[in-house]
Design a protein that fits this description.
Layout: E1 5-9, E2 11-14, E3 20-23, H1 26-34, E4 38-42, H2 48-55, E5 60-63, H3 87-103, E6 107-110, H4 112-120, E7 124-126, H5 129-132, E8 152-156, H6 161-166, E9 170-173, E10 180-183, E11 189-193, E12 199-203, E13 210-213, H7 224-238
Parallel strand pairs: 1-4, 1-5, 5-6, 6-13
Antiparallel strand pairs: 2-3, 7-10, 8-9, 8-11, 11-12, 12-13
Length: 242
């Protein structure tokens, strides 16, 4: 029996020698492998035709974390804290979200990933939570903190996709972001909140598996609840016949 092929988005950067890189964090790869999937990296910079060709071989899509989505895509408030905007990556991921929804292809968004999903469907973001979300707790535990540092709980909405996977009403999570959802897209359902009311999880109803979370479960796979999220995603992808 073949393993479900999961496409992982990537980001562009340079190494210490100034050499351009296209990569993803190994933790995402290991999380998919641990859940029984076969990860395939999707390079930033593909043409639309090349992207659709790669997409045609994928049974699921994982939208990883990274730099900020271009505020011009959702009418965001200008902020000096906006960083690492990559319009080429934005375009690639927005195309993939829309195709996955159209085709009923399972998808899972992490941190930036939940934000991309929300923007693709017409939602809006805080360009900086600390400046724009009244009563916000700290969410930007980076850099200088362990990536698996648990900093707050998520209230999980009963009856949701997430609740069915983690099977707990309160989920302890890490937090490595300074942006987040301010206005949820009309077609998405909010299924998780942080203690300050920030949206931390959304799902796309009536879809085989459409989930976005604001924390980083790939750094918490020692927890059975986080393992269950990745396993549920990979299992849903395994039901897709290409």
């Amino acid at each position: 029996m073949s393993l479900p092929i999961i496409g992982l988005t990537t980001s562009r950067s340079t190494n210490e020698a100034g050499i351009p890189l296209i990569a993803t964090t190994e933790a995402y790869v290991q999380a998919i492998l641990g859940a029984g999937g076969s990860p395939l990296l999707i390079p930033v910079g593909l043409s639309d035709s090349q992207l659709i060709e790669v997409y045609s071989h994928l049974q699921g899509l994982l939208f990883i974390g990274g730099g900020d989505v271009d505020p011009a895509l959702y009418g965001g408030i200008p902020s000096s804290h906006i960083n690492d905007v990559d319009p080429v990556r934005d375009h690639l991921e927005l195309v993939l979200v829309q195709r996955a929804i159209k085709d009923g292809r399972p998808f899972f968004g992490i941190c930036r990933g939940i934000q991309v999903i929300n923007v693709a469907l017409g939602g809006k973001l805080y360009t900086d939570i600390g400046q724009q979300h009244v009563g916000a707790i700290r969410h930007d535990y980076f850099p200088g903190f362990p990536r698996n540092l648990i900093v707050h709980n998520i209230e999980v909405i009963p009856g949701s996709l997430l609740a069915g996977l983690v099977r707990v009403p309160l989920l302890p999570v890490n937090s490595l972001h300074h942006q987040g959802i301010s206005v949820v897209a009309p077609s998405l359902r909010t299924i998780g909140f942080s203690p300050d009311g920030l949206i931390e999880a959304v799902e796309l109803p009536e879809h085989p598996f459409g989930l976005g979370v604001q924390w980083h479960p790939e750094w918490l796979t020692d927890q059975t609840s986080m393992q269950a999220i990745f396993r549920g995603f990979v299992e849903a992808a395994g039901k897709i016949i290409l």
